[in-house]
Design goal:
The structure is a homotrimer of 141-residue chains. Chain A is of the alpha+beta class. Chain A has one domain: Jelly Rolls (Sandwich), CATH 2.60.120. In chain A, 26% of the residues lie in helices and 36% in strands. Chain A has a five-stranded antiparallel β-sheet, covered by helices on one side. In chain A, strand 5 and strand 6 form a beta hairpin. Chains in contact: A-B, A-C, B-C.
Chain lengths: 141, 141, 141
């Protein structure tokens, strides 16, 4: 069969720094809408202060992951980025670069492949609420 | 030529926390079996306490990488995740989210593109031995 | 339409540890050269002491990101990797494994999808200057 490429968007409004948003259901609906049964879906964050990964989406980990990001890029330290913009989000950029803006997941027999306790999440790493448009690319047949 | 999509699995039994398993040869065999000469292979970990990356597979780094994960998400700190499950693997989830569950590598002229000293590894981040099934998706021609 | 797969290379000479090189324009030129209008581009680092991610490319963050890498894998600690090679780059390997060697970005209507302040960067994590050849794989139509 011939491969198809289709694009979709997920639009989000985040509430605060370290808002972690479960986008699994939106991705599953997109896969269904696409009609593509076998292939790969790429979730991409256009922006330098957000990231995408997977996690077991439960309230404890929504605190534990930000605590680890504090160890990597603490709130209470000075960032050279401050010289450029004075917007207090140096840590946001650093955290986003380390986790990364891109995630690729298989689609098999019309279903997104994920573990039982594994959800796809957008991480708002900026220090203020943001509107976000994630780009979903599905390639397959 | 027309692109093909093929799926494969790698089944592993891990022995302990921070077991790092070299899956390079299994991936190379899968590429050969697939018959796909040019394209991309995606390695995906269904599960929220495992991760995939590359490393030079030698005994020293198998200790050095876990030491860095201890800095990011230490063993001897409290995790809110504990409230949900009481299974002592809060750090496992946090580490897995940061490294990530997905890796995509080019296949060119029938060969997996890797550096001379670069191996593909599965990281068992859970605190107990696990059976793991990784999903390999090859797209190409 | 039928999907195509095309390969390209980006050749770099890095100057020092934590050299962060903006490869966005080279990637955009490659996308244009490929003639592929819709699809995905994968940027892959063959090698275990380099990594690829995105960041807002401004002088402050080029210091802030290395500072975070120092927290994850400090310069002034002992690495078991030293026993194997005595080349003082244990931290380089650890940092590269955590950030990762692979990044996938959508191409839509002939354009690379990126945020306004988001650039694609190669991170030289080795402790000495290196020649690097990154592999770009474009799949699409």
């Amino acid at each position: 069969m011939v491969s198809k490429i289709k694009f979709f968007e997920i639009n989000l409004e985040t509430k605060e720094e370290c808002d972690i948003i479960d986008i699994t259901n939106k991705i599953k609906e997109t896969v269904k809408t696409s009609g593509i049964k076998n292939g790969l879906i790429n979730i991409f964050v256009p922006g330098s202060t957000g990231a995408v990964t997977t996690i077991e989406y439960e309230p404890g980990l929504l605190k534990d992951l930000p605590a680890a990001l504090e160890r990597i890029a603490p709130s209470n330290t000075y960032y050279e980025h401050e010289k450029m913009w004075h917007d207090g989000n140096g840590r946001s950029h650093v955290r986003a670069s380390i986790i990364g803006p891109s995630l690729t997941i298989p689609i098999k027999d019309g279903k997104l492949i994920l573990g039982t306790w594994q959800q796809v999440v957008f991480l708002e790493l900026d220090v203020r609420p943001r509107k976000r448009s994630l780009v979903l690319t599905i390639i397959g047949e």
